[in-house]
Amino acid sequence: MVVKAIDFMPQILGDFIKEPRLILIAGHPGSGKTTLAMTMCLHAMNAGERCFYISFQEDRERLFKQLAGVGIELKPYEDKGLLKLIKLPLVVSEGAIQELVEGISRDVMGFSPRLIVIDSITPLLISIKDDAKARGLLQNFFWELHRLINGSVVLLAEVPLGRELAELGWAEFVVDAVVVLKYRTYKGLVERVMEVKKVRGRELNVAELPFSIQKNVGIVFHQPMKLSEIKSSKKRRLLAVGPQGPYLKESTGPSIVTLIEYPPELTLSLPLLYSILLHMASSNYGKLLIIEYWSPEDRIKDFMMDSLKLYGADEEVIKRILDNIVIRPLNPTAYSSPELFSMILDIVNDVKPMAVIFHDVALPTKTAVDVSYYASLVYNLLLYLKSIGIDVVRLCSRVDSFTDLYKVMSDHVVSIRCKDSICDDYVVYDYIEGKIVRRSWTELEEEVKTLIGYLKNQIPTAAQVK
Ligand SMILES: Nc1ncnc2c1ncn2[C@@H]1O[C@H](COP(=O)(O)OP(=O)(O)O)[C@@H](O)[C@H]1O
Ligand SMILES: [Mg+2]
After folding, report:
1. Could you give all domains of the chain from N- to C-terminal order, each with its CATH number?
2. CA distance 307 to 203
3. Confidence class of residue 107 from pLDDT cuts 50, 70 and 90?
């Protein structure tokens, strides 16, 4: 699920407007410190509180422009007197630090902000590196500042590239909260995570949160789902296996995850049609969502129309089926894994389908930056979908042994294999509830016709398939 930083930071840090806190946000250059700090300002200003932003790096114009690009328009707040942004020159001596501190204090007294951001403390600390007295003065000042305003002070700190953490020493001990923004690029993708190191007085239940910085939107977190228990879901009509293959029992059961694996040349063919029909039938024309990793929407629709016609569907059935399918093509390589999953969740929440078909899961799996991380996200997504009563079909070309892992994450496995080494015919194995049913490709085609027949009339019952 996607959560905007403006709503999420108070959940992480507590009410930093009402409760005075000294907060440290550390991170590599470009990791999003400035954007996050401005978002926190925005949160304060939207609540009618004043924010004082002290920059030692960028001037006002550049900052305003950069932040406008991510949807943060600061001018209206400045006009209303809620924002004061100043750029200060760097200082190098103890005397100058004294002056700086006094200057800031005067500004603070005059403006009475509820939030102060110092962007960033790193060049200041470096410039007085060898001056222990100046350092002490500065540290003490930061500490006093949040008590003085009875609000929060956010200190930003640069972590040099290639290093995990800044050598902050003192800051980590005195501050109330430490947040580290991390940033890495891999295979052309940017992966950002926020690590919450500590928050005084709060239980930490999230350690690392993936996020992205989006044009016109700003920082959004991709909240991973972690279900600590495996819950049983709403009851659904149950899929059972008879001599002719799966059918629907009158009785009901929880939603299920089906994996259909096949040789890679079969991707846009009978397995897809079969899984669509099966779930149309089990949900009685309920909404079906197809997350499509390769083809554009019209190609899938054309395929559906042509093959439904081929197997004897009339116009009305075709129309009803297509009306109840939502196809969302996604290029999995354009997103980091957490981003991809939070997008899928948002689509699911938006469409509210009875079932989701993923086609073809070999693609995102094989292109994932970190396959085992990807698999753990899949696992949590499947548990979540099951817990809210959504059936899942995962169509998967057999390109590697990882499909074995996916079998473990399924309640029903359909395995389509070459009949012999020439591979001009296939055998279909259904594994469900401890039973194995073997069918030929022709029988699968017959079953597709039967399902179309059921959809024309009614849903099959145990009595009918006997
Ligand atoms: N309009 C935009 N759309 C998307 N990302 C942006 C936009 N503007 C800046 N960014 C991203 O935001 C990051 C800069 O964030 P910033 O808060 O300035 O980082 P830091 O203060 O840690 O150096 C860059 O990595 C950049 O890619
Ligand atoms: Mg910055």
Report:
1. 2-222 (3.40.50.300), 235-465 (3.40.50.300)
2. 55
3. very high
